Structure formats: C-alpha cells, structure tokens
C-alpha cells in the first residue's frame, strides 16, 4: 500500500479478467478478533498464499446485543487489510435467526465506507447477505430493491454490490424474482459446496458438480456475462451440526477436503478461460471459525499442504 491514501481510484483495482483461480480465503469475524490478530492472519493470506482478497463471513456484534453490530469494527478490518496489502469482500450479514441485524449491518457498514478514507481502497465488493434467498430472510423483490438502493448509495466509492448465494437459493424463487436479484447484482458470488449434492462422491470427482453450478449462472437471465466468484467454496473435513451428506458416497474427511482443492487447482485453465475468468476462495481460513472447513485446524496447524496457483 502507498504511504498516503490516494486521491482517486483510477487504475487502483486490477481488471476483473485477471482475477481467476485462487484469490483468497473466507474469514469469519464473529469472534471480534483484535486488529493485531486480523493483521497477522491477513498478512499470512497475502504473503504465504498470494491471496488478493479476504471474503468476510459472519458479524462482530455487541456483547449481549446480537442484533447490534460492534461500532467501528469494520474500520478495524479495513486497518488490518490496509496494513496487510489485501482487498476485502465485505458482508451485510443477515444471521440465522431473522430479525433486524441486517439493517444495522447495512447502515454501520455504510458509515465506515463513507467516513473511513481507506475503506474504498480496501473494499472491492459488498455482499448483501450470505444465502439470504435459501434462508428466506427477504422476498426476492425486496432483496433486489435493497441491493439496487445500496449500489446507488455507494456508487461514488467504486464498490460493487452482490448477493452471496447457492444455486438452490435461486432455484427456489420464481423466474421473475430470480431475474430481479440477478439483474441487481454487479457480479455473481456463488456458494460451491458439492459435498451436499445428492450426486457427490469424492473431492476428486467433484468437477462435474462444480461446472454444473457455474453453467447454471452462465445461462440465467440477469447473470449472463457477469464476473463469477466461488466464495463459500469448500469440502468439510468433519461433520458437525448442519453438516451431513445427501449422498452415501460423500465423506467428510481431510483427504477429501484436500482432494477438492487440488482438483480446483489442477483445473486452472478452465477457471481462466471460462466466463471471462472465474475466481475461487477457500472457505474457510480456520476450523476455529467454522468446524471442518478450515485450512488450519483449531491448533493453528495447516491440515494439509496448500500452495494454490493464482495464474496459469
């Protein structure tokens, strides 16, 4: 990063076509880790793995107030990302229990984006929810209108807005509702979790499932030609609450988790040449953020060797 904050975003972000293959990790923030820990982890993502981005997951809320975002915490994320030299895909988190948390998230994030001079030079994309359609937190038309309104609000900052969602989340909607949300999104953030497919077997054999979900969006009205990121993307190493296979052949194991990411890495050319370049994240940084999905175990050691291609 430069020693002083630039005066313009002109030429700041790389062309989206250069963003393909591995681009970073999802990183869960509900533990409200201090800036020093965020900086250490973000630097590791940037320097050890050549990650371009951290995709924020979850929310840091006030203790005892689950519907209130901890004031200024996104500024802490921005400060850590600036020091680490990494970009951020921010998140307006809806939670799992309904309620008004998302409205508080929406408004406090805007405060940070509009008042922190470094924020727009760190924040590339705002995700308007993580599986909000699958969780039925808002009607599709309402979600689309919220995305559109937020896009207009932050347009001067050069930040894209999207919805982070499963294919199935869109499939549950009417054609008009699905199209409205997809048209509102600047790009597509796709949850790629092939372990849960009824056709799943091993991590090594998951490519047809991956391609099937990608091709779904490449053909959908409102999504055709839009940049695609596989953000909540992974294979669990263990089962836990809410993590159970829909195929008897699918096994949650460290071996299958490693096989899945090796599969993505070995198909770098496909991700480079398809749809103008498709980028993927590793979901998630550590098992202490979401059990079974992390590269790092709860002891802080990598579960397997991971040295992904960032170009080919």
From TrEMBL:
EC number(s) reported in the record: 3.2.1.39
Cell compartment(s), UniProt: Cell membrane
Membrane-protein topology: Single-pass type II membrane protein
Molecular-function annotations in GO: glucan endo-1,3-beta-D-glucosidase activity
InterPro entries, per the entry: Beta-glucan_modifiers (IPR050732), GH (IPR017853)
UniProt keywords, alphabetically: Carbohydrate metabolism, Cell membrane, Cell wall biogenesis/degradation, Glycoprotein, Hydrolase, Membrane, Polysaccharide degradation
A biological process term (GO) from this entry: polysaccharide catabolic process
Catalytic activity: Hydrolysis of (1->3)-beta-D-glucosidic linkages in (1->3)-beta-D-glucans
Keyword DNA damage attached: no
GO CC aspect terms: cell surface; extracellular region; fungal-type cell wall; plasma membrane
Similarity section: Belongs to the glycosyl hydrolase 17 family.
Its biological purpose: Glucanases play a role in cell expansion during growth, in cell-cell fusion during mating, and in spore release during sporulation. This enzyme may be involved in beta-glucan degradation. Active on laminarin and lichenan.
Designated name of the protein: glucan endo-1,3-beta-D-glucosidase
């Amino acid at each position: 990063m430069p020693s002083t904050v630039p005066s313009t975003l002109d030429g700041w972000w790389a062309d989206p076509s250069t963003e393909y293959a591995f681009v970073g990790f999802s990183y869960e923030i509900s533990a409200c880790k201090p800036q020093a820990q965020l900086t250490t982890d973000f630097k590791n993502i940037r320097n050890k793995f050549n990650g371009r981005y951290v995709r924020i997951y979850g929310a840091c809320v006030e203790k005892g107030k689950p519907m209130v975002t901890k004031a200024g915490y996104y500024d802490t994320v921005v400060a850590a990302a600036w020091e680490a030299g990494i970009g951020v895909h921010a998140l307006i988190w809806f939670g799992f229990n309904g309620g008004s948390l998302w409205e508080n998230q929406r408004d406090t994030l805007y405060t940070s984006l509009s008042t922190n001079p470094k924020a727009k030079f760190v924040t590339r994309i705002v995700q308007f929810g993580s599986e909000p359609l699958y969780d039925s937190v808002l009607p599709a038309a309402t979600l689309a209108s919220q995305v559109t309104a937020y896009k207009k609000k932050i347009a001067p900052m050069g930040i894209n807005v999207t919805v982070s969602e499963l294919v199935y989340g869109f499939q549950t909607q009417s054609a008009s509702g699905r199209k409205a949300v997809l048209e509102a999104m600047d790009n597509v953030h796709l949850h790629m979790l092939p372990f849960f497919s009824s056709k799943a077997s091993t991590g090594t054999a998951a490519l047809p499932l991956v391609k099937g979900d990608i091709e779904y969006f490449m053909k959908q009205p409102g999504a055709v030609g839009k940049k695609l990121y596989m953000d909540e993307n992974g294979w669990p190493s263990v089962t836990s609450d809410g993590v159970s296979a829909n195929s008897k052949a699918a096994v949650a194991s460290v071996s299958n988790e490693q096989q899945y990411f090796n599969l993505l890495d070995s198909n770098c050319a496909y991700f480079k040449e398809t749809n103008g370049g498709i980028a993927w994240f590793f979901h998630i940084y550590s098992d202490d953020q979401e059990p079974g999905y992390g590269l790092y175990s709860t002891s802080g050691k990598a579960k397997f060797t991971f040295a992904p291609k960032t170009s080919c």
